[in-house]
Design brief:
The chain has one domain. 73% of the residues lie in helices and 0% in strands. The protein is built from eleven helices and no strands.
């Protein structure tokens, strides 16, 4: 959001565009991230671990999932996280495989939401063009922003850094002693992550990958509306 505020101050972005962007961020924080964590909880329960259910995480209630720092990061830099769902590997029939499946569930949920948002973006954009309707254009802009942030979250959460989902993939891939050795430095790793994000060192390559995914979704979801655009 920092870059968009800068664009607004310079006059490169209208007030309504900024409002639509902030609205899409609120939508992602209060709707998309809870679904992300719910996906983790649901898959974990399906695979035999009832811990998420016992901890009250098998719900789409935003208050059960939102992490204040992770939500603030979403608003500031477009990348962030929610409160990790507690999972106990020993309850899985195949611990390492099942942990990897649970870890992937959240980012996959984000990408599915992004695809749906891009489909709605393409539809509203096509009808806005045909009908020359400004309101439909702003609806399309809302879903484009929502899709972009969802893709950002999906990509970002696959980084092998605690508390992100990628760190759970380390659980599945690394011997236990090495994993816990890394986790001892979780606080310092998180500080380093913040620095890399706010300086743009990490956000730049993440944004590049996110843009590739968004462009692919844009191409696919626009196909059903080609007839409207001629």
């Amino acid at each position: 959001m920092i870059s968009y505020i800068g664009d607004f101050i310079r006059g490169d972005l209208s007030a309504i565009d900024l409002i639509v962007y902030i609205g899409s961020m609120c939508f992602v924080v209060f709707c998309a991230t809870p679904l992300h964590e719910y996906a983790h909880a649901l898959i974990a329960v399906k695979l035999g671990d009832d811990t998420p259910k016992l901890r009250g995480r098998l719900t789409i209630n935003p208050m059960a999932h939102i992490d204040p720092i992770g939500a603030l990061m979403i608003f500031l830099v477009g990348f962030g996280y929610a409160k990790p769902v507690e999972v106990r590997m020993r309850k899985f029939k195949k611990p390492k495989r099942d942990m990897a499946i649970v870890a992937f569930a959240g980012p996959v949920c984000n990408l599915l939401q992004a695809f749906i948002c891009m489909f709605l973006f393409s539809g509203f954009r096509a009808f806005a063009s045909v009908l020359d309707n400004q309101m439909l254009f702003y609806f399309s802009l809302f879903f484009f922003f929502a899709a972009t942030i969802n893709v950002n979250l999906g990509v970002f959460n696959l980084l092998p850094i605690p508390p992100l989902d990628g760190s759970r993939l380390l659980t599945a891939l690394l011997p236990t002693k090495y994993y816990y050795k890394i986790m001892q430095y979780e606080r310092y790793i998180m500080i380093g992550l913040f620095i890399l994000l706010f300086t743009g060192i990490l956000s730049a390559p993440l944004s590049l990958l996110s843009n590739l995914i968004i462009n692919a979704f844009d191409y696919i979801t626009l196909l059903p509306f080609k007839f409207l655009l001629g």
